[in-house]
Amino acid sequence: MKNQRRDFLKTACAPVALTLLGIPLTNACSKDTDEGDLFNEGPLEIDLSQSQFQDLQTVNGWVNYQAKKLLLLRVSNSEILAFNNACPHQGNRNGWSFKGNQFVCSFHGREYSANCNSALRCYNTSLSGNILTVSR
Ligand code: FES
Q: What is the per-residue pLDDT across 21-49, written as a single tens digit (0 to 9) for each?
């Protein structure tokens, strides 16, 4: 029982855990995983020739494209993956690093495999020249 309680507290979001301990909080455990209006007008086209995407020219290069809430990763000469940049843990978007094929969130140190089977929300991509098309 003691271990179950400890395991629960490790994985529950802080407001829920504190509320269960009798400490009332008004904020909820919502995550900012919202895609906003990213795909409202259809697939998103990104011109990779812009200087902010320079790191995507080489395999394993990556960019946190915060304006569109995307993590972009070149996995081969012909493929770039795109993920929602909200951390699956608590939704933070701007603490990413990339090590050994994993994205690492600096807020609590969680690691996510850089593939479409991980907890990161993955999008469809296609690459034609310098144009990356991302769609839901
Ligand atoms: S928000 Fe907790 S590890 Fe990313």
A: 444 444 445 555 667 678 888 999 999 99
Q: From the CA of 129, how far away is ligand 1's center (Å)?
A: 34
> Which CATH architecture fits 33-135?
3-layer Sandwich (2.102)
Rounded to whole angstroms, the Cα distance separating 129 from 1 reads: 57
pTM, two decimals, is 0.77
Q: How far is CA 123 from CA 119, 120, 134, in A?
A: 12, 10, 6
User: What residue ranges do the domains of the chain occupy?
Assistant: 1-30, 33-135
Token pair for residue 8? 């629960």
> Which atom of ligand 1 is closest in space to residue 88's alpha carbon?
4
SS3 at position 47: strand
Report which ligand 1 atom has the smallest distance to the Cα of 105.
4
